[in-house]
Amino acid sequence: MSYPFHSGGTRLPEASRGDRDTQVGSKRHFTGGAVIGGDHGVRLGLESHLEKNAALLLLASSSTLDLTGQVSFVWYDEHGEYHTHYIDLVATQIDGDVVGYAVRPMGRVSTEYIAKLARIKEQAIHQCFLDDFVLFTEQDVCPVELFNAELIHAVRRPDCFADPVMQDVVGSSVGVTTIGDLVDQSSLDGMGFRAAVRLIKSGHLKMVRHERIKRSTEVFRARVI
Hints:
Order of helices and strands: EEEEHEEEHEHHEHHEE
CATH architecture of the largest domain: 3-Layer(aba) Sandwich
CATH topology of the largest domain: Trna Endonuclease, Chain: A, domain 1
Helix content: 25-40%
Number of domains: 2
Strand content: 25-35%
Shape: elongated
Number of strands: 11
Oligomer: single chain
CATH class of the largest domain: Alpha Beta
Distance between the termini: 28 Å
Number of helices: 6
């Protein structure tokens, strides 16, 4: 994603904030990247499809304030030897906690790997580098939440015209309604739907049920706009 200046120019995303460059290509596994954050954004390198899914889910969470990949942490093993571990994803939460995520499929999770993560976690928390360090596997990927996360990421860019209109519509809504009803009231069709999704991400709209976001999804205003 690029972000246009009002003068007509274009500003490219900022470079990755990670401490290690991710692979550009591989014959053995997925590699790629994403642009996250507001305005022109910042690059986030990804070295597996699971890592991509984890990043999208974390970005879609209302508790996530910021996300960084490949953050280095120096730890020591049982023999006192020092090593550098690159934490796949580090999320700074709204409440101020910093949580690291080791992303790995269950087929590659061994007893030795768990023991290593436990040692890193203990040292990272003791040094106040992290507040928590958890393992993220394919078992943590809910298809419904991933669908919504992908949608939220796709429509994340603000719309200076549609957003204020939808905010007015939602601000005057009472009780439970559907996204489709809100969109119809806005008369903005797809623009209105995307604006409604952004209000779900911001927490101003809450979904009644755990389901894929669509026009028939029931929502209610949860925060004053």
